[in-house]
Amino acid sequence: QVELVESGGGTVQDGGSLRLSCAASGRTLSGYTMGWFRQAPGKEREFVAAIRMNGAHTYYADSVKGRFTISRDSAKTTVYLQMDGLKPEDTALYYCAGDRHLIVSSVGIGSQYDYWGQGTQVTVSS
After folding, report:
1. Which of the four pLDDT bands, split at 50, 70 and 90, describes residue 1?
2. In the predicted structure, residue 26 carries a pLDDT above the cut 90
3. Cα–Cα dist 74/32, whole Å
4. How many of the other CB atoms lie within 10 Å of CB of 122?
5. Distance of CA 75 to CAs 5, 53, 79, Å?
6. Cα angle 21-24-28, degrees, rounded to a multiple of 5
7. Residues 6 or more apart from 96 whose CB is under 8 A from it?
8. Which of 24, 25, 55, 65 registers the highest number of CB atoms within 10 A of its CB?
9. Quick check: 119 pLDDT over 80?
10. Chain-wide mean pLDDT for the chain?
């Protein structure tokens, strides 16, 4: 069992920045694929970004490319999502997810991830 804990959400103005963190409680995430997803009220959950903890390959949704950056720490225990140029449409509950057995074609599919955090709220005001 992997416990994931997100932090770093908050309220910012249009164009602002936030950095989200996702930490695994007491263990390494080596070998995992870690993803960030978000869900706005009344909308379906959507993929934001993912990273292979070994090799650090990254993947992004088109809507956040060039604005968001996913990264990990050298100890492979924490994943970050640096969000710059935030827009009101980025407002959502952001979730961290992890899985050890994802193939490349599945990194954007939430149902393929076994472990999820509780979510952290990001609100962007206009």
Report:
1. confident
2. no
3. 14
4. 22
5. 16, 10, 10
6. 120
7. 4, 6, 20, 22, 34, 35, 36, 79, 116, 117
8. 24
9. yes
10. 96
Query: 65 φ, ψ to 5°?
Result: -55, 135
Distant-in-sequence, close-in-space partners of 30: CB < 8 Å, separation ≥ 6:
53, 54, 76
Q: What is d(CA 12, CA 108) in angstroms, rounded to the nearest whole number?
A: 26
pLDDT value for 25: 83
Query: HSE of 107 in the Cβ direction (CA atoms, 13 Å)?
Result: 19
Q: 36 with 46: CB under 8 angstroms?
A: no
How many angstroms separate the CA atoms of 45 and 94, rounded? 9
